[in-house]
Amino acid sequence: MRGRRTTPSQVFALTLMVAASGLILAACGREAETKQPQPRPVRTTTIEKRESLVPLTFTGRIEAEDEVSVAFRIAGRLLANDAKVGERVEAGQLLAQLESQNELSNLRQAQAALSAAQGQLTQARNHYERQETLLGQGWTTRANFEAATQARQTAQSQVEAAEAQVSSAHDLVSFTELRADAPGKITATGPAAGEVVQAGQMIAKIARQDGRDAVFDVGAQMVRAAPADVEVAVSLTDDPKVTARGRIRQIAAQADPVTRTFEVKVGLTDPPAAMRLGATVNGRVESSSGPVIDIPASALTRINQQPAVWIVDRATSLVSARNVDILRFDQAQVIVSQGLDAGEIVVTAGVQALHPGQEVRVLGSGP
């Protein structure tokens, strides 16, 4: 079988096609050589060291600045206890009573003894005066006069002793009544009527109206970390909008033997009425932890399975990755303990699209 012959026109067309293809490829090569990668736009921030304030929070309760336990000075059977928790009392108001039959009997006995001593004193004085007159007239002896003088002095001493017994008996009778020594509010009560109580046993607790404290049980580390004369922000646990401020008034000298915490009393300045005695509150203070470096959380990435950031070279605008150590972080901010120095530029937006040695164009500072 004979092959088909190529005509001169077909050869010429094929030559034109090969030449055109060469020109197209050459043009594409020159365009690829002249086209350079564009710098990637990013946002950055310049590293600065600043003083870090670490918040310290703790939970406590509201107590009276001056709270006293009132009790009887003598033992006895409780006749009545009218103290009620939450009741406001005034100075001198009767709170409780003991049965006073024995004390009243002792008072009457002391009064009777005083009357007898006063009668003996009157008789001794009359005898002394007679002996004094007779001695002046020469009708008695010096010995009789001296005996009358001694009898009068003895009777006088017996009267004074009887008066002291009456005063003591009056006191014992008054001790059967328990009265408030200052205005305030009753925060706790003791035994009920009918019980036998001992001297000094708590009958009621009165929170005086002088002021209020926020009392916290704080660990030794937090006590050491809190600066001197620090202001404490206090808020109700169930209603954080109710707030007050105060300063540390007293720190216990010894830790609680069970919890190993120290009792810290914060004197409140003009506490609101909603901060009632016994209410649970939160306290907050800020303690300095020294100079730290913080960066926006958006600047953080991971390289080699470790936290890292992208650093921009000021001279070349090229980026490089660097691993950092994180001290603490939240949703918006990261505190870096190692890996960064003041003055360095860190990429805060566009970090996921970067690679080492890439040129960047800074759009502005900020996250």
From TrEMBL:
Keywords (A to Z) from UniProt: Coiled coil, Signal
Protein name in the entry: Efflux RND transporter periplasmic adaptor subunit
SUPFAM superfamilies: HlyD-like secretion proteins
Gene3D superfamilies given in the database record: 2.40.30.170, 2.40.420.20, 2.40.50.100, Helix hairpin bin
Source organism phylogeny: Bacteria, Pseudomonadati, Pseudomonadota, Alphaproteobacteria, Hyphomicrobiales
Transmembrane feature ranges: none
The keyword Signal appears for this protein: yes
Protein family membership: Belongs to the membrane fusion protein (MFP) (TC 8.A.1) family.
Domain Multidrug resistance protein MdtA-like C-terminal permuted SH3: 292-352
InterPro entries recorded: Beta-barrel_RND_2, BSH_CzcB-like, MdtA-like_C, RND_pump_MFP
PANTHER family attached to this UniProt entry: HLYD FAMILY SECRETION PROTEIN, MULTIDRUG RESISTANCE PROTEIN MDTA
Record flagged with keyword GTP-binding: no
Domain CusB-like beta-barrel: 226-288
Residue intervals of the CzcB-like barrel-sandwich hybrid domain: 68-207
Coiled coil: 107-165
Signal peptide residue numbers: 1-26
